[in-house]
Amino acid sequence: MNNDVFREVLKYVGNSVDHKKIDKLLISSPNMKRKLEFVSKTIETKLKTRPSLDDLREKNILKTEEDLIKIKENKEQVNKLLQKEGHKLKDSNVAPSISNLVKKMDFEYKKILILHKLGINKK
Hints:
Keywords: Repeat
InterPro entries: RPEL_repeat
Low-confidence stretches: none
Structural class: mainly alpha
Order of helices and strands: HHHHHH
RPEL repeats: 41-66
Mean pLDDT: 76
């Protein structure tokens, strides 16, 4: 049989067939060259379509060292606020503790508004 016929058979059968000629075809140099060309073409196209570092910085995907320092400072400030409210440092439930903090702040704000409307000065 011709190699092209074997190639067509392989398209439908796959690599799991235990046949000497098919195995030879898989390992043959023309087939390996074809696979190598295909892989190199796909890698080239992926590298061409890959965004550059400048594009990533413009879209705020890639952070500079200054941005990372700012993010770290902001995280430290948030952690300090959470610790003041009784949040444990290694607690995984950050969202509920923040929502509780916001609920407390909202309650205090509404309380101040009601007292102000009633004309009561509470100090």
